[in-house]
Automatic annotation (TrEMBL):
CDD domains linked: ALDH_F5_SSADH_GabD
Keyword terms of this UniProt record: Oxidoreductase
Source organism phylogeny: Bacteria, Pseudomonadati, Pseudomonadota, Gammaproteobacteria, Oceanospirillales
EC number: 1.2.1.-
Protein name: NAD-dependent succinate-semialdehyde dehydrogenase
Protein source organism: Aliikangiella maris
Membrane-spanning segments: none
Length: 483
């Protein structure tokens, strides 16, 4: 990997402004060629304790800065990330596999959260309440919650950190993050740039290790940590949430999804298919907001399948560093096994299969893009998050029917619908049981909007003013005996 700034490639945890090594290490594998990208030092229990203590002491000083001073440091961090966009994209593609164009876009997307929250730091306003007692005055003020810990996933190894860290730091909190052991290099590069930007030692810490359970126990149960944020699967999120209960931590959980993508017969079919391609095949289908179940009204089904098949065959599959590649690998063999099992079950229960026609790379964890037709609710693929380049299509007849089918899931993260009917647009916005609804749009995440789900897809929001509120506590101050 050739970088313009080799200092961005780190191999150990970043704690209290220092890079700390240890006796043991683990490998990071490039999923496109199965080669070792780096050997990373495992964080030790004593280093974890060091990180918590460093974040605890640094938080008080960081909180004491004015909002404007914190904003200036954050903007310096933002500028350095933009300046190093291509190197950060190279690192991300090497460890995660997504095409360079997608990785570069993720770098900017994540950095824009820093820019937004640098500005939002100046707007954590309180209130003066009109009291019914003339001798009392009442204030409501916002204070940082304190030390924040986070665990982030491998599918967006830069953006998932910056969505959390930028809001936390803007609020006056310190931050400790454990990135996925599959993709730690992006997090460590961001730590190097935070250090260069003048973020004080101990305010932003990255701990890396392959032994997730003991690290997770510290980050969820340590009494000095006040808030925990997690992005990942629902089963793991439930375990971490239970651990947080031991110290009654404030939590944010962005968990699994099972997004419906509904296409009505009055939709602009070309735009709808473009939305499907962007939603379903971005990051090889490895996103929590992917179109997981594609509902198509019966009288346009044949035309939809024909056009989507043509689009499917335009995908260029291979190593994300190669020019023109639009679909990279899955993250590892376990991901391939999971997708294979879902497809096998669907075929056994009557689904029809259309697959991508081009040759597949010999090395790497690649999966052939696939279209499944005649999917039904009895199939596992209808009820589970796919996390792969599989478009599963379900036919429907009426609006009432499809809303019922779309809501037939314990997940409630994101949903999509394409229609030109304005009245239907409003009905869908109100009746789809999901935290986010995209109408005539296949990609909806934005730094100024609230990102998050309902039901078993989690709690809390990232983005906009709602995101910074997750890292603030509301304090009521009553002043009596005012003469």
């Amino acid at each position: 990997m050739q970088l313009n700034n080799p200092d961005l490639l780190k191999n150990s945890s970043f704690i209290h402004g220092q890079w700390v090594e240890s006796p043991q290490s683990f490998e990071v594998i490039n999923p496109a060629n199965e080669q070792v990208v780096a050997n990373i030092f495992e964080v030790t229990p004593s280093q974890l304790e060091m990180a918590v203590n460093a974040a605890t002491s640094a938080q008080k000083e960081w909180q004491a800065l004015t909002a404007d001073e914190r904003a200036q440091r954050l903007m310096q961090w933002y500028a350095l990330i933009i300046d190093n966009q291509q190197d950060l994209a190279q690192i991300m593609t090497a460890e995660q596999g997504k095409p360079l164009s997608e990785a570069s876009g993720e770098v900017v997307y994540g950095a824009n959260y820093i820019k937004w929250y640098a500005e939002e730091a100046r707007r954590t306003n309180g209130a003066v309440l009109p009291m019914n007692n003339k001798n009392q005055r009442a204030l409501v003020i916002k204070r940082p919650v304190g030390v924040v810990s986070a665990i982030t996933p491998w599918n967006f190894p830069g953006a998932m950190i910056l969505r959390k860290a930028s809001a936390a730091l803007a609020a006056g909190c310190s931050f400790i993050v454990k990135p996925s052991e599959l993709t730690p290099l992006s997090a460590l590069a961001l730590a190097e740039l935070a250090n260069q930007a003048g973020i004080p030692a101990g305010v932003f810490n990255v701990v890396v290790g392959s032994n997730a359970q003991p690290i997770g126990e510290v980050l969820t149960m340590h009494p000095k940590i006040n808030k925990f944020s997690f992005t990942g699967s629902t089963p793991v999120g439930k375990k971490l949430l239970a651990q947080c209960a031991s110290t009654v931590k404030k939590t944010s959980m962005e968990l699994g999804g099972n997004a419906p993508f509904i296409i009505f017969d009055d939709a602009d079919l070309e735009k709808a298919i473009d939305g499907v391609m962007r939603s379903k095949f971005r990051n090889a289908g490895q996103t929590c907001v992917c179109a997981n179940r594609i509902f198509v009204q019966r009288n346009i089904l044949s035309e939809f399948v024909a056009q989507l098949t043509n689009k499917l065959n335009t995908l260029k599959i291979g190593d994300g560093t190669t020019e023109g590649i639009t679909l990279g690998p899955l993250i590892n063999h376990c991901a391939i096994d999971k997708v294979n099992a879902l497809v096998k079950d669907a075929i056994e229960k009557g689904a029809q299969v259309i697959t991508h026609k081009s040759e597949m790379p010999v090395k790497g964890f690649f999966y052939r893009p696939t279209l499944l037709i005649d999917v039904t609710p009895e199939m596992k693929i209808f009820n589970r998050e796919i996390f792969g380049p599989i478009a599963s299509v379900i036919v429907f007849d009426t609006e009432t029917e499809v809303i019922q089918l779309a809501n037939q899931t314990q997940f409630g993260l994101c949903s999509y619908a394409f229609t030109e009917n304005i009245s239907r647009l409003w009905r869908l916005s109100e009746q789809l049981e999901f935290g986010m609804v995209g109408i005539n749009e296949g990609v909806l995440s934005n730094p100024l909007a609230p990102f998050g789900g309902i039901k078993e897809s989690g709690m809390g929001r990232e983005g906009g003013s709602w995101g910074i509120d997750e890292y603030l506590e509301t304090r009521y101050v009553c002043i009596g005996n005012v003469q």
